[in-house]
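Hi U.,

Before I forget, here's the chain from the pilot set. I'm dumping it here mostly so it's searchable later in email.
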Amino acid sequence: MGIIWNEDLGKLILRFNLGFLMLFHGGETVMGTNNILANTDPVPDFIIWPLAFFSEIVASLLIMAGAWTRIGGFFIAGFMFWAIMLRHTFGDRNHWFDTTRPMIEGFARHGMESQLFFLCCGLAVMFLGAGKYGLNKGGKWN
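Structure:
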């Protein structure tokens, strides 16, 4: 196939992109610098913090290393879906169906585009797997 049409190299680039960016996003979440934990009213911090740490930090490292990549993608996608539902859909923070302004403006103003990016990349990694570049080559969950 050659370097130009190398699917495994494309999977590696996707994995590193998702894992590297999610590490920063997860670091802000876990350290509390982006105020996410303060905005999750119905769910207590002692539930959110371990989920955020595992889904955004541990899963990112697994994805970047190519070990249990599909499981890592599942946890990132699942946590991002839950975060979007929790922060952007329920209660007075309904940014999906705000009829007073265009939908794209609601996405940009409320930071939903990064969460949708992480959700879609997590799904892609979950379905594609790691490819041949990784620690756990050829496993069922890779």
